[in-house]
Automatic annotation (TrEMBL):
Subcellular location: Cytoplasm; Nucleus
SUPFAM superfamilies found in the cross-reference section: N-terminal nucleophile aminohydrolases (Ntn hydrolases) (SSF56235)
GO BP field: proteolysis involved in protein catabolic process
InterPro entries to which the protein is assigned, alphabetical: Ntn_hydrolases_N, Proteasome_alpha, Proteasome_alpha-type, Proteasome_alpha1, Proteasome_sua/b
Keywords, alphabetical: Cytoplasm, Nucleus, Proteasome
Similarity comment: Belongs to the peptidase T1A family.
A cellular component annotation (GO) from this entry: proteasome core complex, alpha-subunit complex
Protein name: Uncharacterized protein
Lineage: superkingdom: Eukaryota
Protein's organism: Aspergillus sclerotialis
Classification via CDD domains: proteasome_alpha_type_1
Amino acid sequence: MTDSCLKQLAARRIFQVEYAQEAVKQGSVVVGLVNKTHAVLVGLKRNAEELSSYQKKVIEIDSHMGIAIAGLASDARVLSNYMKQQSLGSRMTYGRPIPPDRIVSQIADRAQLNTQQYGKRPYGVGLLVAGVDEAGPHLFEFQPSGLTHEMLACAIGARSQMARTYLERNMDKFLNCSRDELITHGLRALKETLSQDKELTIDNTSVGIVGLAGEGAKGKFESFKLYEGQDTVPLLEAVEQSESGGNAGESMEVDS
């Protein structure tokens, strides 16, 4: 091939991948963050109309792993079912849970294959995968192109940049915080993405958490726990208390 042909091939864009990434950007936001003992997923649920139910945002894959989705729910259902099958197969074949990094690599290969074959399209969904293994808690980001990253904190979906800004500013605080404080930081990051006329409620908020059973505990995991509905009440109250305490501290500094 000539140099001009090589440049043209390098400049080609896979438009279907870009359309799939746009679907992720249009989805309601999800946030993930991890510290030394736990990984947390929080999601903002959205309903298509007032008469419809809220879309599920956080899904348990296995007792040691869960995902948060942004984008096409139908594509997320296909990927989550595949991940559940692989997790079950690992337990039946090897008698142990599948490592989070391995299953993330498997769905990445599956997604990337769709960009190469005629008649298939990329999955129009982004995932945040939270899991725990012998090394501790992990958080991975999955993109429609098949690209994956292990993250300390991440946010995807509509208005997610505001959540990422919060996470960047407060990273030093949540890397060594407690389990409950980590959830509070996740919800505060999620709250940053809301428009002025909206609030976090028990109807539109989902929280999932997984981690080690105790600080320094090896081989003992805390099973994935999903908080929805009335279960989120104490979590949302903790966010309000943390914000009121922070505002009080700020006003004291100004008065002095």
